[in-house]
Structure formats: structure tokens, C-alpha cells
Design goal:
This protein is an alpha/beta fold and 321 residues long. The protein has ten helices and eight strands. Strand 2, helix 2 and strand 3 form a beta-alpha-beta unit. Helix 5 runs parallel beside helix 8 and helix 9 runs antiparallel to helix 10. The two termini are 21 Å apart. It binds uridine-5'-diphosphate (UDP) and magnesium ion (MG).
Length: 321
């Protein structure tokens, strides 16, 4: 780990079609960093295949300010991979990640840096105000954390997002994880280290619109749960056992009806209903097994999880194309 100039703080920002946000965010961050007397810092935008003016806006900043860098992906790989690329390339003694849309208040970065200077190794944040994010998002977020915490080994705290500070030690640990389906929110709590929580009120998105539709969030949630836990597979077995038991009891009842009464022909409805129901359950269970199998398949190919088109930071990584 030989670095020519020691950088105290790296800021990592996944950016996908955020042309209206990058300049404002960079200016606010620089103000905060200057107020904290951060001697040297870098702000790294990861352009996750934007189709608007995001990249040229970043390049405009980068030509005049040498603390600003970018990593341009060859296409859209998704928020988590943009984050991973940022962590892989950041050179700072602490790395702070936040969203590009100013929902994560840059002012909080000051508190993060203070806590880190006092010895914290992970400063993670908890979103406080639920009204801001809308009914559906709130409901889906709530159900996700409820389910995730029942199904995973280490609980994920509600409202924690990818807005956090990581000490160099933690970043180097994460760099060694070669997971193809990364879910940092589930991974970081399992790592240990000295973790400190910070509560905050989210701001409204400054410009542009959310990239997470309900369908995308559903996918994100399933990926999150199945990336950090194998418990859904046990759940499948319990559910299977439960319905096998029900079927057995119903079978006993059917035999009783056939042997001791003469009402045996009725019951077509219950028959078709239970067949369809059990068929549906089986589909779900096959789906759960399929998700894990698919993840193994992708992982076994060991392809790079993201592909870089261009970047302005020196890199010592083997997996950049
Ligand atoms: N983002 C990204 N790649 C994507 C989708 C989103 O890098 O495929 C970035 C986006 O630019 C933003 C952050 O991830 O900085 C969070 O996205 P967004 O604000 O749309 O999500 P929300 O806050 O609505 O959950
Ligand atoms: Mg947002």
C-alpha cells in the first residue's frame, strides 16, 4: 500500500443520470471538508453508465479541480457495483460514500469525520424521517427490514443506507470480498470493528428522479436477503414439512369420509384448491432454490463485477478492464 501523497478522506459517489446534482454536491462537500481542516481529500464520482450530461459535468469539474476524480463504467452496472468500484479505487485513510442526489446531507460528513477522528472505524447512518420518502417506499422498506431481519444471521438496522464512513482497515477488508452479488448493507454489520450510528433527517432529492422503481426495489430486497443469508432455504424445508403434514391430516380425514360415510364424491373444490395451492407453494420453493443456484452459477464464472471505460485515478487492481 504505497501511496505517494497520503489522502485523509475519500468521498465516493455512485452517479447515474444525475446531471443536475454533481456540481452542487461537489461544491457543498468541498465546503464541509474545508471547514473540517481536511488536509487532502479526493471526491470520486462513479458514472454508472449515465445517458445524460452527468459525465461531462463531472469532467468540467475535474479539469479545474484536481481533487475531483471519476470512474466511468462501460455501461450501467448498478448502485452496489458503483460503490464497490469506489471503495476499490479510493486512496483515503477514511472513505465516505453517499448518494449523488443530496438526500444524504453533506453537512453530516463533518460529524462522520469527527467521529472517525475520535476512533470510530465504521460510521453508519440511520434515516429518521419516514414522511419524506413516500408511503410506498416507507411500506416496502419496512417490510424489507422485517423480512430481512427474520431471515438473516446478523440484523440490518432499519433505515440504514449506503451513506457511511469506513476506515481504511474496513475498506481493505471489503476489497478482499470477491462476491458477485454484493449487498454492502448486509455485509458491513457482520464485519465487526468499532461501529458508530448516526441519525439523520433525509433531504428531498435535489434534481432528477429516483432510479429505484418498486420492481427494482423488490429485486434489490430479494438480492439483499439471499446475498447475506441461506436461511430462506431452511424456510423452504419448514414450509414443505408444514404442508406435507396438512396433506397427511387431510388424507386421514378423506379415508375416514370414504370408509365411514357415503358422502365421498363431494370435495372436488377442496381438491382442486389444495392442488393449486400446493402447486403455488412448490413454485415459490423452486424459485428460492433457483435464486441460490443462479448466484452460484454467476459466481463460478468469476467475471469482473464491473467494467471500467475510463478513470482518472491511478489503479493497482487486476480486475479493471
Ligand atoms: N444509482 C447508480 N446506479 C443505478 C441506480 C442508482 O449509481 O443503477 C445511484 C444514483 O445516482 C444515486 C444513488 O445511486 O446517487 C441512489 O439512487 P436513487 O436516489 O435513485 O435511489 P433512492 O434514493 O430513490 O432510493
Ligand atoms: Mg435518492
Amino acid at each position: 500500500m504505497n501511496r505517494l501523497t497520503p489522502i485523509e478522506i475519500s468521498i465516493v459517489i455512485p452517479t447515474y443520470n444525475e446531471e443536475g446534482n454533481v456540481q452542487v454536491l461537489a461544491a457543498q462537500l468541498q465546503e464541509v471538508l474545508a471547514a473540517q481542516n481536511v488536509a487532502s481529500y479526493e471526491i470520486i464520482f462513479i458514472d454508472d453508465g449515465s445517458t445524460d450530461q452527468t459525465l461531462s459535468n463531472i469532467q468540467a469539474l475535474q479539469t479545474t479541480q484536481n481533487q475531483i476524480h471519476y470512474i466511468q463504467f462501460s455501461r450501467n452496472f448498478g448502485h452496489q457495483y458503483a460503490l464497490k468500484a469506489g471503495l476499490d479505487h479510493a486512496r483515503g485513510n477514511a472513505v465516505i460514500s453517499l448518494d449523488a442526489d443530496l438526500q444524504h446531507p453533506p453537512a453530516l460528513v463533518a460529524t462522520m469525520i469527527q467521529l472517525w477522528r475520535e476512533g470510530a472505524q465504521v460510521v453508519y447512518t440511520r434515516r429518521q424521517d419516514k414522511q419524506q420518502i413516500g408511503f410506498f417506499k416507507n411500506l416496502s422498506a419496512k417490510s424489507f427490514y422485517w423480512l430481512a431481519n427474520r431471515l438473516s444471521e446478523v440484523p440490518i438496522e432499519e433505515g440504514t443506507a449506503d451513506f457511511r464512513l469506513l476506515d481504511r482497515k474496513v475498506v481493505d477488508t471489503i476489497k478482499n470480498f470477491k462476491e458477485s452479488h454484493l449487498f454492502l448493507r448486509g455485509l458491513i454489520p457482520t464485519l465487526g470493528f468499532k461501529q458508530v450510528a448516526l441519525d439523520y433527517q433525509p433531504a428531498a432529492r435535489f434534481s432528477g428522479k429516483t432510479k429505484y422503481s418498486l420492481a427494482k426495489m423488490f429485486h434489490f430486497a430479494i438480492n439483499g436477503i439471499t446475498s447475506s443469508s441461506a436461511k430462506p432455504l431452511y424456510f423452504a424445508i419448514y414450509l414443505g414439512l408444514f404442508f406435507a403434514l396438512l396433506a397427511f391430516l387431510y388424507g386421514c380425514y378423506a379415508i375416514y369420509i370414504a370408509v365411514f360415510t357415503d358422502a365421498a364424491i363431494t370435495g372436488w373444490t377442496s381438491l382442486i384448491a389444495s392442488v393449486l395451492f400446493i402447486g403455488g407453494i412448490q413454485m415459490i420453493l423452486i424459485g428460492i432454490v433457483g435464486i441460490y443456484l443462479g448466484k452460484l452459477f454467476v459466481q463460478s464464472k468469476q467475471r469482473p463485477t464491473y467494467i471500467i471505460q475510463a478513470l482518472t485515478i491511478p489503479s493497482d487492481l487486476a480486475n479493471d478492464a
